[in-house]
Amino acid sequence: MKILVINSGSSSIKYQLLDMENDSVLASGVIECIGLEQGILTHKKAPDTDAAIKIVVEQPIPDHAVGMHLAVDALTHPEHGVITDASEIDGVGHRIVHGGEKFTTPMLVDQSVIDGIREVADLAPLHNLAHLTGIEVAQSIFKCKHVTVFDTAFHQTMPAKAYQYAIPYEIYEELHVRRYGFHGTSHKYVARRTAELLGKPAEDLNIITVHLGNGSSLAAIQGGKCIDTSMGMTPLAGVIMGTRSGNVDPAVLKFIAEKKGLSIQEVEEMLTKRSGLVGICGMSDMRDIHSAIEKGDERAKLALDMVCHRVRQYIGAYWAELGRVDAIVFTAGIGENDDIVRLGVLKGMEPMGVILDEAANAKRAGEWARISTPESKVDVLVVRTNEELEIARETVKFVK
Length: 400
Fold this sequence. Notes:
CATH class of the largest domain: Alpha Beta
Number of strands: 14
Shape: globular
CATH topology of the largest domain: Nucleotidyltransferase, domain 5
Strand order of the largest sheet: 5-4-3-2-1-6-8-7
Structural class: alpha/beta
Strand content: 15-25%
CATH superfamily of the largest domain: ATPase, nucleotide binding domain
Number of domains: 2
Radius of gyration: 22 Å
Order of helices and strands: EEEEEHEEHHEHHHEEEHHHHHEHHHEEH
Largest sheet: 8 strands, mixed
CATH architecture of the largest domain: 2-Layer Sandwich
C-alpha cells in the first residue's frame, strides 16, 4: 500500500511517498517559492538509502496546482520516479496545523471536514487556508481517500484545568481562547515508539516527551494520553525557540508597544520572528551558538543556559503533575542531535533518579538510543521523530 503525505504551506508543498508494507520512504520532496518569480522543486528518490537520487528543478510555479503536478511528474519520472501513474497511490494524508476544539482525531475528508477546517482558520490563518488549498488540488489529482491529521488533536485529551486560561469564561465560550498545543503528531509518534522500545504497554507508562527544534514543545503523557503541553493557543508559548520568545509576562507587550511606539501586531511579530535564540545572541542555529561559545561569546552562552533552564523547568513541572516518570524522551532536530543541550537540561537531576550516561549521550543516536545508565531510575531516550509515518499510519486505517 502506497500513501502520499502532504504538508501544504502558503508558498510551499512538502511531500513524502511511503510504502506501508515496510514503512519505507520511496520518495520525498519540497516545492518552494510558489507564486514568486522563480520556484524550486527538490525531489529525492529513496532518500534514506545508498541508492538515493536527488534532482532540482527551477521554474516559475504560479500556484499550488502547478506545484502538485510537478510533484506527480517527479514521482512518475522514468529515471527518478517510483510509480508509473498517480492511480498507484492508495491514500493521501494531509497535515493540518490547527483543528481547534472541533477535531480531536484524524478525519476522512468530506465537505464537513473542509468546512470545519475553514471555520477554525482564524486560529491559524496562514496555515489552515494553505492546507485547504493543498487538499483541493490533491483531490483533483489523486482519486483516492484523503485523510486529515491535526497537530492539535493529540493534546485534546488535556483536562480543562490544563487548557483553560484564567480569563473571563465568556471569552473562552465565545472565541475559544484556550491552550491547544502543537507538534502533537510528533509527541504521539515518539510516545508510542518509546513504549515499543521499552517493551511495555503505553497505558502503563508516564512519559515526558521533549521536542526540541527551531520550534520546541514538551508534553506530559500519562497512559498514552497527553495531560499537558507547553505551547498554548499559538506556537509562540512555552520554552525558548529559534526565533520565538516562549512565555513572557503579557504586560510586556503593552510596555514595549508604548515605549517603542509599536502596534500590537508589530510586537507580536517581534516575539515570533526576532526573539528566542536569535533575539538573545543573534543566532538561531544551535550549532552556530556552540561554535560561538567556544570562542568566548557570553551572549551565546547565556542563550544556551536559558534554553536548558526553561526546558528543565517544564520537566520538573510535568514530573509533579505525573507523579511518576518512567521515561524522558528527546526528539526533533536539537533533541536528537545536540548532546550538549541534553546534558545541560538533565544536569543536576541525579537526586531525582535521572543518571545520564555521558558516553552514550555523546554518540550519534541514529533511529534511537538509551542515554541513561542501567542504575538510572528513569529511562532517558533519544528517539527520532517521524511525523510523516504517523500521518501515513493514520491514513492507512481509513483506506483499509
